[in-house]
């Protein structure tokens, strides 16, 4: 993981390590790993990770604790146990030792289909929420809770607090808990025979970490096309709070390539137990993307970056579309992460599930900080925040021309790179020629207008820099203060 403007200068090694790119010419300065002063209110500094974090781990949950560790749990393909690992970085979870903290019963309740564990720290103790069936009736899925009093939950002893008692005794799963204005809530998915087929989202207040109080309210029922493909499903609620609002994402449709994420939104000051306080998106906020090769993204949760300045989306998906047989028998859902960006209206923008490997960054203009390098019709420009997020995201990879350079690969069009042609900058597919490799390679320099930013010098036209002019990107020589500002960018 890299923070600050230096994020755009690394090579993106396949190992997941981040390495500073060597200057293309001796003596050239490298960017300082700090976010420019006065710009923190615009956006958080760049953070990058290498996906996937964990193979064959579905329904992931990652929490950053006050002890400096990230704790990670997820569904295992055998559906027979709960595992836990920890590391001081999100990337470190990929290689962290994994320990089984609980195993299914051999008979009766909690004897089958151990699904979707979540780990929470409440009142000085650790709790894991999970769903389980009966050994003799595997589809009798209900929510359960484990408790651990140890400081380190990976090595501590876990005890069973039992089943969360719900007023309706029916198929129910994916319990999560959160606090708004001092009140703790439980949200979950459940089938109500009286409401019709499928699972709906519910909310209730809690009197302790394993007990709800009062009457639950149904927040959402699957009715739209994107909620009913294959199965009628609303499940996997997850909550993030920002800008005076509560955002509850959830997963919808069958657990194949149709699986996707929707979102409910409520004011943090509203009565959350009133379903009318919540508004559902008209379409998915996160879904399969053939261009990046990611299918069925969902069952997400949220965490924060190591510096605490960026919100991170945690989710699972598959790297292929077609599945033989029941998707539940396919073991290859894997845990992934990527940065969340926030729109000018205060709502989250999840973009698209990015390609495998290094996650992308955005590059904002030094003198127009609300505009980002982007592409419309493949002509590169700087655009305001309203443009599609993925069109303003670039993966910074080792330069196609080598020599310590970098190349900027489009997140929305993998295999397409920022390149100059007749000194205009376009996003074009790599044609494999030496000319393309040279045109698409840049020496990452300390920002010409701010050494804590970045400037990109053309590999094959030294002295010419990537800069914007009337919002369009060009490759030009720089001489004036305005030129230098136009040629300086900040990684976010």
TrEMBL record:
CDD domains: beta-trefoil_ABD_ABFB, GH43f_LbAraf43-like. The record marks 174 as: Important for catalytic activity, responsible for pKa modulation of the active site Glu and correct orientation of both the proton donor and substrate. Pfam families: AbfB, Glyco_hydro_43. Keywords: Glycosidase, Hydrolase, Signal. Residues 1-20 form the signal peptide. The keyword Metal-binding does not apply. Residues 362-490 form the Alpha-L-arabinofuranosidase B arabinose-binding domain. The active site is at residues 59, 235. One of its GO terms (biological process) is L-arabinose metabolic process. GO terms for molecular function: alpha-L-arabinofuranosidase activity. The keyword Hydrolase applies. Belongs to the glycosyl hydrolase 43 family. PANTHER family: GLYCOSYL HYDROLASE, HYDROLASE, FAMILY 43, PUTATIVE (AFU_ORTHOLOGUE AFUA_3G01660)-RELATED. This is Alpha-arabinofuranosidase. It comes from Streptomyces thermolilacinus SPC6.
